[in-house]
Amino acid sequence: MPSTAPAPAPARESIIVLDQLCKRIPLGGETLEILQPLSLSIPRGQFVAVMGPSGSGKSTLLGLVAGLDTASGGSIRINGQAITRMNEDELARFRGRNIGFVFQSFHLILNLTALENVLVPLEIQGRADAPARARALLGQVGLAQRANHYPAQLSGGEQQRVAIARAFACEPPVLLADEPTGNLDTANGAHVLALLQRLHQEAGTTLLLVTHDPEIARAAERVIQLRDGAVVEDTLRNPGGGA
Predict the structure, then answer these.
(1) Structural domains for the chain
(2) CA–CA distances in Å: residue 165 to residues 69, 119, 169
(3) Beta strands 174-178 and 99-102: pairing type?
(4) What is the pLDDT of residues 108-154, one digit of tens each?
């Protein structure tokens, strides 16, 4: 009798590949190893949470993947491109096309409105649909009526939603988020996480998120635990993607 078991899902292509990546800094005549040599492969479309205590190397790892920091050794490939071989101009162009970033402290431009903040990356890319795209994104994050407000006129949760709209503006295949709910209360944090999940799923974006919050990590498909700059645990929690 033929088997009725479903065929295994095809393996997803890796979009982020780290090979013996490390970060060291000189300190008082010695060398401090912030990130020990590590190798990781993250499939396209996966939601990965990176956890660990303060000083474990979480934000350093994210900064290296974003090309905002320089590795001491090893390599990083994103979407098939070796970013560790790029100069600053090449990195800037690559980030604009391939990486969105959401920071804990929002990093909005204070003298620009919510709409203008979302427009910035679109105008840098010269997109003809920039105004319509920016307004549509603000609508997606529930801020259509706040488009002309400045950051100081928005709550913390609203500012982070503008930052998320900006990060998704150019439809990057990779989104990096560094403690995106860290400055928010529980209700706003849950709202922002749900928004990130929804946009990640709708766009098929690979989401690499640093958090200290186990509740947030539970929403991820995969959880990587760092301690003293090394991976101590790498767990696939929700095969198939997300909560």
Answers:
(1) 14-236 (3.40.50.300)
(2) 24, 10, 6
(3) parallel
(4) 999 999 999 999 999 988 889 999 999 999 999 999 999 999 999 99
